[in-house]
Amino acid sequence: MKRIYLIGFMGCGKSAIGRRLSFLLKLPFYDMDKEIVRQTGKTIPEIFEQHGEKYFRDLETEFLRNFTGNYCIISTGGGAVMRKANKKIMRETGLVLFLDAPFKEIWRRIHKDPNRPIVAKSTREEIEALYKMRYPHYKAAAHISIRTEFRTLRQITQYAAFQVIRLKGE
Predict the structure, then answer these.
(1) Helix (H, G, I), strand (E, B), or coil: what is residue 14?
(2) How confident is the model at residue 169 (pLDDT cuts 50, 70, 90)?
(3) How far apart (Å, rounded) are the C-alpha atoms in residues 51 and 14?
(4) Distance (Å, rounded) from C-alpha 54 to C-alpha 82?
(5) Cβ contact 97:74 at 8 Å
(6) Engineering a disulfide at 99: which of 8, 10, 32, 143 sits with its beta carbon 3.0 to 4.6 angstroms away?
(7) Following DSSP, what letter does each residue of 112-158 receive, concatenated?
(8) Exposed/middle/buried for 15, CB within 10 Å: 0-12, 13-18, 19+?
(9) Which of 65, 86, 62, 77 lies closest to 30, judged by CA?
């Protein structure tokens, strides 16, 4: 397994777990959103406002197709799994871990975040509908699902590391 992909809905902890997992496994960490911001010179809200969501999703696919790093951890965007091409790339080039957090917890984390353009323009009900629509895609894309409810960041990270090490040994 060359890469570890972290997938899940916005606010599920992909970046936080990715950084900690990077430290624990001594692997480089890449946050897909931050890499896209670095490459374009625009914030995520600016990209959405100036070019729309489809353009942003195209940038995610381009990132996955062109990324050359191996033996690393990649935190993906919350909607990256909605494209079949992205799921295929991730499943074929690495281990896909789904950070499965309940919507109530996610909403608590994201509802006031100004860097989430979808949240800023939507109601709680609309975000929950999006969560429910994406959820089966996360499950289908994942090699391993990790329930995050009632677990600390440390517990989640240790469990993820255990799964990665276990699979390396097989």
Answers:
(1) helix
(2) low
(3) 25
(4) 11
(5) no
(6) 8
(7) T-TT-HHHHTS-HHHHHHHHHHHHHHHHHH-SEEEE-TT--HHHHHH
(8) middle
(9) 77
DSSP letter, residue 10? T
Ramachandran quadrant class, 155 (left: phi over 0; alpha: psi -120 to 50; beta: rest): alpha
What single letter denotes the amino acid at residue 146? I
DSSP secondary structure string for all residues of 53-98: HHHHHHHHHHHHHH----SEEEEPPTTGGGSHHHHHHHHHHEEEEE
Average pLDDT of the chain to the nearest whole number: 92
Q: What is the DSSP string of 25-45?
A: HT--EEEHHHHHHHHHSS-HH
Spatial CA neighbour of 138 closest among 30, 5, 27: 5
Nearest of 111, 125, 65 to residue 57 by alpha carbon: 65
- Does the pLDDT at position 170 exceed 70? no
> From CA 6, how far away is CA 77, in angstroms rounded?
9
Helix, strand, or coil (residue 9): coil
